[in-house]
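Hi team,

As requested, here is the filled-out complex form for the NAP run. I kept the field names the same as last time so the parser does not choke. Let me know if anything looks off before we queue the next batch.

— J.
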Amino acid sequence: MPGSKPTAASYDPEAVRAKYLAERDKRLVPHRADIRDLQADEHFARYRDDPFTPFIQRDSVADDVDVVIVGGGIAGVLAGARLRKAGIERIRIIDQAGGIGGTWYWNRYPGVMCDVESYIYLPMLEELDYIPTQRYAFGEEIRRHLGAVANRFDLVDDALFHTGVTRAEWQEDVSRWRVHTDRGDEVSCRWYVLAVGILNLMKLPTIQGMEDFAGRSFHTARWDYEYTGGGPGEPLTGLADKVVGLIGTGASGIQCVPPLAESAKHLYVFQRTPSAIGERGNRPTDSDFAHGLEPGWQRARMDNFQGILMGRPAEVDQVDDGWTQHYAAVQHPPRADGMTMTEYLRSAEALDYGIMETHRLRVEELVADPATAEILKPYYRYLCKRPCFHDEYLLAFNNPNVTLIDCPAGIERITEQGPVVDGQQYEVDCIIYGTGFEAELTPLFRRVGHEIVGRGGVTLAEKWADGAASLFGMMSRGFPNMFVMPAPGQQAVVTVNYTQLAVLGAELIGGAVGLLERRGVEVFDVSAEAEEAWTQEIVDSFVDSSAVMSACTPSRINNEGHPEARNPRDGNYGRGFGDWFGYRERLEQWLESGTFEGLELKVRSTTS
Ligand code: NAP
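And here is what came back:
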């Protein structure tokens, strides 16, 4: 198969399946998904430190506000902005970061960018009258823009940064949440909003001997510019005489390879599984981009993108990139009239093969050394892993100072000198872990990073121990006046463009709180029936794809090779790839009706 062209004549489905399974088996090794708990890990405690903003001592805060929002990333900022629009005055964002930005605060590794088009990813472009400078924005621009949104809606002055919530408990007697932090604050609030995102917990694999490494090491989400020199977009001058080992070749790892290749004396890239690297095609925004844009253009563009990903017919593909071409195509293979299911599945497999061959051929074309190129070729079906898009990553392997190390079973061990693979010691000065985040497989109650105590002393962890239970994936019975921003894996819906989901979640929260306040509602809780009904809908629409997904190379998408272990209650709205538009319609109709169906309401007493 290596080097073959995606022609019908060379396509042998049996051989392809066998190759994919053989590649999967190299990676399906025991303990491949073992991680250290970086939230508690003592040895690697400094990995959690904020290298970007100095920690400033302050007095603890004890006060009462209308809303506490945990998280100052896209989700928290949008929720705050929408709450402001609803007339809510006292809003406190609390975040462990030293400023606004969430994932874009922490991820400042060189080359950091978003491979979802900037015109649909940066939120509130119309409100802020801002047009991103490039088709795909770099992290700095996204972070600055989120800061601008937060400033516009006055969310910064009252925010508590470098502050972790340790516990939140519902106070039945006063109908408020009391929020405790690691800086001794005690803030009570009427409405409690969790906006912690899905990329907030860094993942550090358990690798034998990793504590013994004598050089410098850090995670991509806490880039150590003090050591590497430079900054995002600037040469890493401190690495000129340094040998660097990068572990991980996911969306983050691949983005920092070109700048590392440019600056390091030598770069070893340790690759467990190659990502499929599609064309990115970044370019400066056309000078006439904004010309003639109608009000509502951003939502329309987001919908156009999402519609194409959902297989909806569209007159024009406004974004027109790898997501709308390859990703959409494999999600919705065409089904000709009269095709049996078996024929349909075969044609879908052939289409997938063609797209993956295109990626493999791209590697061949761009990487000069055939042996290196072969290691970089992804042998699995397109949706087995999150696809990546980059124009310089593959080319970086043509630099004489870059060596790709194939380690399908992971790093064997790490010694004082550096990683060992297949018995060979690689001596490095620095190890960079581009090993990702605990993402959506990690239940919400862990991702929030603090204990949430609801009615009757029941914690969210206890309530969700057997899986999520919610209304819309955003409210849960027993946790009154609490909203969770929607995210995959918690009974909401999956999207490629997370911003669009955050906009929807913010609309619901801002709209609902505004209306509840106007109606004098002091407390809401989800009714038992509404929660059961929503949870049942999620469970009923769960499609057990484990037969297909177990053939995939292990990744978080197939639960690291164990798709059968997925809990239907932690699923998403809609069958298969989900029903984004159906989900949005449900939420919008619910809000628009103003009846708060499914909620039990306690109206403020007028005599008190
Ligand atoms: P990731 O996709 O989880 O990748 C982690 C990498 O570390 C993988 O290559 C993984 O190998 C490797 N790895 C883990 N344990 C290892 C071990 N013991 N030995 C060797 N290698 C090991 O993490 P990420 O790249 O940070 O991306 C996470 C998510 O962030 C993405 O899915 C995306 O949602 C988001 N993101 C988005 C963008 C964007 O442009 N929009 C950019 C960056 C990140 P395997 O592949 O074999 O597991």
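Two things worth flagging: The chain is about 30% helix and 15% strand. The mean pLDDT is 95.

Thanks,
J.
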